[in-house]
Write a structure and sequence with these properties.
7 helices; 41% helix; alpha/beta
Length: 250
């Protein structure tokens, strides 16, 4: 399947760094106009500049996704500048690992606000601006911490598990609008210096390596392709097979 995104408009939350920035670059490389929605102004502007220098159509939006009014304003401004978005990729998240008995209600609420409420509100705005125009794609990125948990992981795990469930529910709610909604659950995706990983880090994965941010970007490109309208309401676990094996490493 040949994929070309020329003429398509994409919005990536949390797009200024890590997985999000790889997604931004891949859509830009394939001709899409891409909006970067991120609270990190310095990294957002740096990525915007780098992409423009590479010949991509990219625009940075500074936004704090905890605020519903800011989300609505961003979509209003984006439509005024370039029209409605065709693709929404919800990547932004925040993690705070603390012992269960030390987690405050305020910290819990902040994690849910960014990781779960914001994707829902962004999806609402995405749909509202599209009316009934047919082709549309939403992809949520929910790391596998909902599947493989750690101590002190309650708030983050709940937010990611909720995002997977939200994906399935929205796929049904938006079916009549021809908007597909899918989820990607990345495992270990190294966003730092890949060369510093140890052989045993790679060996934990049946695929023989730790993931790259581009692995997630490629999955997004596949799920949002105009010709791909039959995968809907699914969660793709993108972890090199890690969650399929028992882990007894010393």
């Amino acid at each position: 399947m040949e994929i070309n995104y020329t003429g398509k408009r994409v919005l990536v939350t949390g797009g200024a760094s890590g997985i999000g920035s790889a997604i931004v670059r891949e859509y830009g490389r394939l001709g899409a106009a891409v909006g970067i929605a991120d609270v990190d102004r310095e990294r957002g502007i740096a990525l915007e500049t780098a992409c423009i220098e590479a010949g991509y159509k990219v625009l940075y939006y500074h936004i704090d996704l905890r605020h519903s009014g800011a989300i609505r304003q961003m979509f209003d401004e984006a439509e005024a500048i370039g029209g409605h978005a065709d693709i929404l990729v919800n990547v932004a998240d925040v993690s705070r690992f603390k012992p269960m008995m030390e987690m405050t209600a305020e910290e819990w609420d902040e994690i849910q606000a960014i990781n779960l409420r914001a994707p829902f509100l962004c999806s609402q705005c995405f749909v509202a601006h599209r009316k009934n125009m047919g082709y549309g794609r939403i992809v949520n990125v929910a790391p596998t911490k909902a599947i493989v948990c750690d101590e002190g992981n309650e708030a983050y795990a709940v937010s990611q598990g909720g995002l997977v469930s939200l994906t399935r529910a929205m796929a049904l709610s938006l079916a009549h609008r021809r908007i597909t909604v899918n989820c990607i659950s990345p495992g270990w995706i190294e966003t730092g210096d890949y060369s510093k990983l140890r052989p045993e880090d790679h060996a934990q994965h049946p695929s023989g390596r730790v993931g790259h941010p581009e692995d997630v970007a490629l999955a997004c490109l596949y799920l949002t392709a105009p010709a791909n309208d039959f995968i809907n309401g699914e969660n793709i676990v993108l972890d090199g097979g890690f969650c399929r094996k028992m882990q007894y490493l010393e």
